């Protein structure tokens, strides 16, 4: 597998072949070798399943630039889907039904966005301060308040 040094240290979720619809007038389906990572989808030119000599580095669709995976449709042996970017660009792909690329990309995108939302929430709340402060002894909540007035008034006191 030919990934740049920047990409080689990443965790690979899935790798294999996808077909991408060209953006030219003919809109032909072109085979691409793809690598799905927790950060996005790396796309290289493919020729019969092997990487071809490229004029430049592999293209990367980073999850922070992807809005959604949309328009999933099954026709015959293929699943067709569209990746919609934050700039509303639509990129059409298809894969063999049994490969599950659309589901894997969708799950990885959801996980990426969830992790980003958690990081943002923690940053807003002071990097995850001690949320247990209201449960400390003597605060009247949680166990160990030591007041003797339990939550059940019918309990006998010693």
From TrEMBL:
<keyword id="KW-0963">Cytoplasm</keyword>
<dbReference type="InterPro" id="IPR042832">
    <property type="entry name" value="PHLA1/2/3"/>
</dbReference>
<protein>
    <submittedName>
        <fullName>Pleckstrin homology-like domain, family A, member 2</fullName>
    </submittedName>
</protein>
<dbReference type="GO" id="GO:1901981">
    <property type="term" value="F:phosphatidylinositol phosphate binding"/>
</dbReference>
<feature type="region of interest" description="Disordered">
    <location>
        <begin position="121"/>
        <end position="158"/>
    </location>
</feature>
<feature type="domain" description="PH">
    <location>
        <begin position="12"/>
        <end position="112"/>
    </location>
</feature>
<dbReference type="InterPro" id="IPR011993">
    <property type="entry name" value="PH-like_dom_sf"/>
</dbReference>
<feature type="compositionally biased region" description="Gly residues">
    <location>
        <begin position="139"/>
        <end position="149"/>
    </location>
</feature>
<dbReference type="InterPro" id="IPR001849">
    <property type="entry name" value="PH_domain"/>
</dbReference>
<dbReference type="GO" id="GO:0005737">
    <property type="term" value="C:cytoplasm"/>
</dbReference>
<dbReference type="GO" id="GO:0043065">
    <property type="term" value="P:positive regulation of apoptotic process"/>
</dbReference>
């Amino acid at each position: 597998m030919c990934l740049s040094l920047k990409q080689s240290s990443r965790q690979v979720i899935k790798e294999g072949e996808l077909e991408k619809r060209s953006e030219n007038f003919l809109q032909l389906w072109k085979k691409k070798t793809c690598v799905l990572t927790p950060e996005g989808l790396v796309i290289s030119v493919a020729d019969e399943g092997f990487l071809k000599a490229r004029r430049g580095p592999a293209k990367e669709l980073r999850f922070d630039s992807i809005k959604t995976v949309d328009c999933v449709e099954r026709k015959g042996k293929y699943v067709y889907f569209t990746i919609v970017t934050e700039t509303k660009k639509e990129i059409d792909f298809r894969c063999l039904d049994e490969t599950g690329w659309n589901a894997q990309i969708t799950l990885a995108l959801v996980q990426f966005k969830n992790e980003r939302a958690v990081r943002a929430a923690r940053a807003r709340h002071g990097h995850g301060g001690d949320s247990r402060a209201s449960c400390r002894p003597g605060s009247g909540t949680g166990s160990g308040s030591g007041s003797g007035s339990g939550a059940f008034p019918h309990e006998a006191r010693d």
